[in-house]
């Protein structure tokens, strides 16, 4: 039986019907807004209307970005325009940017040099190893070929796949594997990240062109930016302040806490289906049902878990939280979802749910890691394996994905509070305000003063 989260009217929804309705494609690129992955989520990127904002960076720090370490380069050291690229291999917008960057070398020849700097994002599990693999290929003279192949195959960055790409390019596979085993290029990646942070880089793709930094520019604008740099002009007409004030020791001064994104006006409630096998916390007859679509590789989903816990604590049995899966990070994100559903069949969903978020950065290690976590969560591992591989658990995941498709949601976390759609990781006060309104409460159960300083501010993946 399926139940509407807004009206609580039982409706028969055969599982097979839900499977037939599954999405053929889900957005696999990451969109964390400006903070995490640039404006990657919309087709065409930023668009061509208006200039991309630019900020100047410290000249000495820019020279370090050009000079330090051994980053892959394309173009001569004597080129008058230097383009330092902070990028990674699980960022959809970085992938769209790559052909335009290559086009610069064809258009401007020896007048431009590209300097690659790995900037794997914490929320993109496996991106760090993919960056190291590209550098390992570069050691054998095939960085750019491997770089292009990684984007072509994105988001497939498991170790066997990385080795397969090396074989495809004719690399010395034993030398390549040893470089990954020894983490030979980890120091180079960490150096690039440190340089990026010193410049104020917080997301990908970020470009620094002759000391002028732009975040996620429209690829169509790059040629004009380089031309202006060659002419000694600012690369755009729109400049913004530096990333942060500088202290006496040259360290970036602490930024003032950022206020949460404003709570959007309540939308018209949607009918959100709930299946009998969906894991939930709270009584089925609670007047408020929050259906939370999340994914275990999404850092914003991890951040919103304490928020959901606070809402349950403050409103008690008046709130029920139902968990459904929405996959935005490709096939590798399906394994933890299957693990959670398998754990639920042993009555251990909460334990597995919490331990997977606690080890989110390790989930890309695959099946063996999930079985290890299942054992730590107190599951019968033999039964866990059987359920994990069962057609029924797979069908449940497909039904979750189908319901997300029917609701036309493509990012995580996505929460429905009695059918009202609340997109992205939000602070407790935002959830509380809508719950108070729906319950008819006159007071404020969760004021903004109760929001943790590190409360999520509306970001998400997908």
Helices, strands, pairings?
Layout (H helix, E strand, L loop, with lengths): L1 E3 L5 E2 L3 H6 L12 H4 L18 E2 L2 H9 L5 E2 L6 E7 L4 H17 L3 E7 L8 H13 L3 H11 L5 H10 L4 H9 L4 H14 L6 E4 L2 E4 L6 H9 L42 E3 L4 E2 L6 E7 L4 H17 L3 E7 L8 H11 L4 H10 L8 H10 L4 H8 L2 H17 L6 E4 L2 E4 L4 H12 L23
Parallel strand pairs: 5-6, 11-12
Antiparallel strand pairs: 1-2, 1-9, 3-8, 4-6, 5-7, 7-8, 10-12, 11-13, 13-14
Structure description:
This protein is an alpha+beta fold and 462 residues long. It has 2 domains: 2-28 and 265-450, Glutaredoxin; 51-230, 3-Layer(aba) Sandwich (Glutaredoxin), CATH 3.40.30.10. 40% of the residues lie in helices and 13% in strands. It contains 17 helices and 14 strands. It has helices at residues 15-20, 33-36, 59-67, 92-108, 127-139, 143-153, 159-168, 173-181, 186-199, 222-230, 299-315, 334-344, 349-358, 367-376, 381-388, 391-407, 428-439, and strands at residues 2-4, 10-11, 55-56, 73-74, 81-87, 112-118, 206-209, 212-215, 273-275, 280-281, 288-294, 319-325, 414-417, 420-423. Strands 3-8-7-5-6-4 form a 6-stranded mixed β-sheet, sandwiched between helices. A 5-stranded mixed β-sheet has the order 10-12-11-13-14. It has a 3-stranded antiparallel β-sheet with strand order 2-1-9, with no helix packed on it. A hairpin with a 2-residue loop joins β7 (206-209) and β8. α12 (334-344) runs antiparallel to α13 and α12 packs across α15 (381-388). It starts with a strand and ends in a 23-residue tail after the last helix. Mean pLDDT is 83; it is low at 7-51 and 241-258.
